[in-house]
Specification:
50% of the residues lie in helices and 17% in strands. It is of the alpha/beta class. It has 2 domains: 3-204 and 299-307, Alpha-Beta Complex (Spore Coat Polysaccharide Biosynthesis Protein SpsA, Chain A), CATH 3.90.550; 226-296. Helix 5 runs parallel beside helix 8 (209-223) and helix 9 runs antiparallel to helix 10. The longest helix is centred in the C-terminal third of the chain and has 34 residues, at 263-296.
């Protein structure tokens, strides 16, 4: 009996790309008679014609499962929906924007056949502007230093997960999810495929610079407590320096009769320590935000409609 590989495609306003992406992926796997291929296409609340195109694909191909979320829950929700609904022996995720080439699929499968549970795509170039490229590099370098896991720089969300890795990801209960971090956290034997990322040819990316910052927050506050530790160390150092300054200032008063006009130093000290306190409270507030999100226990996404769910169960 043939093994089954599920290919997942997350979408948001990709009316110009979804058909082309599906056709290119189908072309890459049509000659592979060794496996049975199924498709899952998740629409994350698109406002263009993407939904209708996915619905037509699913209605004309029983091996295509169309999942329509009730609104835009963010890219992490799309990935989670794919993981939750994937079946078979392996899962390959690839976005619909064609920046990550479908020709990677045979390479992922080959690495899986060699005994790897996880295969990750690593892009060796950048199609981002200089500012975004700098921020992305800085984030992953920082993440590598302060977290308790290793996420390779330029690791994409594209890759393969076998059944064991999929089941491990499904066991993780958190709602504040950072897929690249979770994928590394579960462990297992991992291989990497280097590739060149292409430019988006059709449509416009919905990802803004603020989305990148939110994504970075998920990683930093979800996988590291070092920031809290640093605040503790900084607070201890500042208290110690303040104590030394007080002793020195009292000495100056007794010896020289208070020669320093204190108004300006006091104002600077108030502003400095106030800024440090506000920053520390903000860091604590971010961790509290994560706790609140988890305790709400809301689902990561809500499915509005499915097409071909019975055939692909």
């Amino acid at each position: 009996m043939k093994k089954t590989i599920t290919i997942g495609i997350p979408c948001f306003n990709e009316e110009k790309n979804i058909i082309k992406t599906y056709q290119k992926i189908l072309k890459m796997v049509s000659d592979n008679n060794k496996y049975f291929f199924k498709f899952i296409i998740v629409d994350n609340g698109s406002t263009d014609n993407t939904k209708a195109l996915i619905r037509n694909l699913a209605m004309t191909n029983k091996n295509v499962l169309g999942i329509f979320l009730s609104r835009d829950f963010g890219p992490e929700a799309s990935v989670q929906a794919l993981i939750d609904h994937a079946s078979g022996d392996a899962f390959i995720g690839i976005p619909a924007d064609l920046q990550d080439p479908p020709k990677l699929i045979p390479k992922f499968i080959k690495k899986w056949e060699q005994g790897n549970n996880i295969v990750i795509g690593i892009y060796t170039n950048s199609v981002d502007d200089f500012f975004t490229f700098f921020l992305r590099k800085a984030f992953y370098r920082l993440f590598k230093k302060i977290s308790n896991i290793v996420v390779p720089i330029n690791a994409s969300g594209v890759g393969l997960l076998d059944k064991k890795a999929l089941n491990a990801l499904r066991m993780l209960p958190e709602k504040y999810r950072f897929f690249r971090g979770l994928r590394s956290w579960i462990g297992f034997k991992t291989a990497y495929i280097n590739y060149k990322r292409g430019k988006r040819q059709y449509g416009k990316s919905s990802y803004s610079i603020f989305d990148y910052f939110k994504h970075a927050e998920r990683g930093l506050f979800g996988f590291s407590y070092l920031i809290l530790d640093l605040m503790t160390y900084i607070g201890f150092i500042l208290v110690f320096l303040s104590f030394v300054f007080i002793i020195f200032y009292l000495f100056m008063i007794f010896v020289f009769g208070n020669p320093i006009k204190a108004s300006i130093p006091l104002m600077l000290a108030i502003v400095f320590f106030g800024g440090i306190q506000l920053f520390a409270i903000s860091i604590i507030g971010k961790y509290i935000q994560v706790i609140v999100e988890e305790t709400k226990n809301r689902p990561v996404y809500i499915v509005d409609e499915t097409v071909n769910a019975k055939q692909n169960s």
